[in-house]
Structure formats: structure tokens, C-alpha cells
Specification:
Layout lengths: L2 H5 L16 H6 L8 E2 L3 E6 L6 E2 L2 E2 L4 H7 L7 H10 L5 E10 L2 E11 L4 E6 L5 H13 L8
Antiparallel strand pairs: 1-2, 2-5, 3-4, 5-6, 6-7
């Protein structure tokens, strides 16, 4: 075997997703986008229990406990978005998505999307520093909302 072959025997390279958002860094760093729980290169998402949900696996909690436990996994969730999500999920479950990319050593959070449990949109927040973030959030909605009429 050649030296180059030996060096390439390590971990397989992840294939990149063919996506065009208008932000080359996001597009290059994205290997996949999907609905539901995810911990990917440019996506972190999680199912969020409703505020009124009290029972999980036979253990009972105070109202809001399970929702707050789920939201606590988003360590950089802005307080105003957290408050809105709490209000919007008073009596229904949802899924909160965070989309981001890296620029050098910094993580740029482009935005947040909240859907209900059936992947229908509830609210979006574009939080990135440039207009490219809006393009990212508009594009990824097509992948996480399979029932969305705007899906291509």
C-alpha cells in the first residue's frame, strides 16, 4: 500500500449534503439536516415536552419541569426565545431546532425554528449577524418540515 492509502485508512469522511443556502461556510459544513432530535455539524434539535406535561416514564413532576429540562440542553438559548418557546408550548409538545455554522473558532448561531410534534411551523427566529442567516433558515425549513407546502 502506498503512504497516501495508509493515511486515508482512518475514519471515513462524511459526505457533505448538497445544499445551497447562500452561506458557503454553512453549506460546506453541513452533512445532513433532518427533523426530530439531532446533534449534527450545523444542527442541534430536540423534542420539547409541553409545559403542562407532568408524567415521563412513570415519574411525576411539577408543571414546567420537563419543558425546562429539555430547554436546558440548549446552553446558548437566548432568554427572550426561551420565554417565547415556554409560552408557545404551554399545552402542546414541540421540536426546537438550532442552526449554526463555524467561522474560525467562533460558532455563529444563524437561527432557531420551533415546530409542533407533526413538524408544522410555529415560529422562527433569525439571529445571525448577516442576511445570509435568513437564507439558511428559509432553506433548512424545507428539510425539517416534510408537510410544509413550500417544500421543493
Amino acid at each position: 500500500m502506498s503512504r497516501k492509502t495508509i493515511l486515508n485508512l482512518g475514519y471515513p469522511k462524511q459526505k457533505k449534503m448538497n445544499i445551497t443556502t447562500g452561506c458557503q461556510a454553512f453549506d460546506r459544513q453541513t452533512s445532513q439536516i433532518h427533523w426530530g432530535n439531532a446533534n449534527e455539524q450545523t444542527q442541534y434539535s430536540r423534542y420539547i415536552d409541553a409545559w403542562i406535561q407532568r408524567d415521563k416514564y412513570g415519574t411525576f413532576h411539577e408543571p414546567g419541569y420537563l419543558l425546562n429540562e429539555d430547554l436546558d440542553t440548549f446552553t446558548d438559548l437566548p432568554p427572550q426565545i426561551r420565554e417565547e418557546v415556554t409560552q408557545l408550548l404551554k399545552d402542546r409538545d414541540g421540536i426546537l431546532y438550532k442552526f449554526f455554522h463555524r467561522s474560525g473558532h467562533k460558532i455563529i448561531v444563524d437561527g432557531w425554528i420551533l415546530t409542533d410534534g407533526m413538524f408544522r411551523p410555529i415560529k422562527t427566529w433569525v439571529t445571525g449577524p448577516t442576511a445570509k442567516s435568513r437564507g439558511i433558515i428559509e432553506t433548512v425549513q424545507k428539510y425539517i418540515m416534510p408537510n410544509n407546502k413550500n417544500e421543493s
